[in-house]
Specification:
Radius of gyration: 36 Å
Helix content: 55-70%
Mean pLDDT: 89
Shape: elongated
Oligomer: single chain
Largest sheet: none
């Protein structure tokens, strides 16, 4: 009996000791105090527990120094290495102390890059900070402070869906940006763009946002002569066509940025065939005047595109009618989609600014659209033949039924 009592006492003692050890390891007097303070000094346990650093086992002392296990003034003593508030100018250096150490970072995330700090020093933000401008963005402006989350977390400020708003926090604030001689309409322009639509409306997280074109830690505006290189990371075929186009040389001579000249930069909207015409949406008439080769070429391309678009629309309408009537038109639908692909290809080939090249795609599409249209016409004719055949069959059946009925009555009359 005494042996069992001894074992029970030992287990209780171990449990008490273990609890004390765990409490000693997890106690955080920094959060205990700061959770009761008002903003901007308030840091709650719930807030800090969401931080990627806290989840990896780091504490307040990792950045601020001090001893979070103590509840008296010694917790913030010089002996405990207390640094207190980190000045804005020192934040990149502080973050870089760990994030630039490949050996140290490998134990937490071997795939995480460790050149963020060196990139930051090459950025517009980093260069201005070095010159003493402490208004520019530092790490905490983009990543937050005590609730830093990984980029894949939708609550992170640097999640693709949030990057534009994060950048716009400064860049859309006219008062804050006063003195930098750059516009503050970028966020509003981007929010009206095709890129924003793809990202937010269609949920394509690979769609471009600010950091896609400007970089993140090494943020800088693309140079006028290199902006097409940025666009070509996604729009490869368009860039290749432009490189061999008659526009490349004069654009370079006039120091015009290739893609931006026609499509803008932040407010990039869905391109339309009207951009080639002479109406209010025309882009070509910004440089070309009536009678010159470029003007004529643009009108020729627009005319060809309209012809294929109309032919394709006609094929779609007649196939819709045939399909709604129950006719089999799957092969014709394939030709219809191939014609649509040709129209899409022709709209890409526009970047060659060669009417002959565009015409090749147009002619291929017209041929396919005509085949699809003919198949639709044939299907509707077949439907007509079937209806006539069905009508004649019904008439014949009705005649037989009437004849049989008369014959039966005749037999019944004879029997009487």
């Amino acid at each position: 009996m005494d042996t069992w009592r001894s074992k029970i006492r030992l287990c209780i003692l171990l449990a008490v000791v273990s609890t004390a050890v765990v409490r000693a390891q997890t106690v955080n007097t920094c959060v205990d105090c700061h959770s009761a303070l008002d903003a901007p000094f308030q840091v709650t346990q719930d807030q800090f527990s969401q931080d990627i650093h806290a989840q990896k086992g780091l504490t307040c002392a990792s950045c601020h120094g001090g001893d979070p296990s103590k509840a008296d003034d010694s917790a913030m003593s010089k002996a405990a290495g207390f640094r207190g508030h980190i000045a804005r100018k020192d934040i990149p250096t502080l973050c870089g102390r760990c994030h630039s150490d490949a050996v140290y970072m490998r134990q937490y995330n071997p795939s995480l890059r460790t050149d963020q700090y060196s990139q930051y020093l090459t950025s517009v933000h980093g260069k201005l900070l070095t010159k003493g401008d402490y208004k520019v963005a530092v790490c905490t402006d983009c990543h937050s402070v005590h609730d830093i989350r990984p980029p894949r977390d939708s609550r992170s400020r640097v999640h693709p869906l949030n990057i534009a708003e994060t950048c716009g926090h400064c860049h859309a604030d006219a008062a804050y940006m006063k003195g930098y001689a750059i516009p503050t309409s970028q966020l509003a322009s981007y929010n009206s763009s095709v890129h924003h639509e793809a990202l937010v409306v269609r949920g394509d997280l690979s769609a471009p946002t600010c950091s896609t074109c400007h970089g993140n830690h090494g943020a800088a505006p693309p140079g006028v002569g290199t902006v097409q290189n940025v666009c070509s990371t996604c729009h490869v075929f368009q860039a290749q066509l432009f490189e061999s186009s008659p526009h490349k040389a004069p654009f370079e001579a006039a120091s015009l940025p290739g893609c931006v000249t026609c499509h803008s930069n932040h407010a990039i909207h869905h391109p339309s065939d009207a951009m080639l015409g002479t109406g209010p949406e025309s882009i070509c008439t910004n440089c070309h005047t009536e009678g010159d080769g470029g003007y004529k070429g643009a009108l020729e391309i627009q005319h060809d595109l309209a012809g294929l678009a109309n032919s394709l629309q006609g094929a779609v309408q007649i196939l819709d009618r045939a399909e709604s009537a129950g006719m089999e038109v799957s092969q014709a639908r394939t030709e219809q989609e191939q014609a649509r692909d040709s129209l899409t290809k022709a709209r890409v080939t526009i970047h060659s600014f060669d009417p002959a090249k565009v015409s090749q795609d147009i002619q291929a599409g017209l041929k396919l659209a005509a085949q699809a249209n003919q198949a639709g016409v044939a299907a509707l004719k077949e439907r007509g033949y079937r209806r006539k055949g069905l009508g004649l069959s019904l008439i014949a059946i009705l005649a037989v039924v009437i004849g049989l009925r008369l014959y039966i009555r005749k037999i019944e009359g004879s029997a009487v």
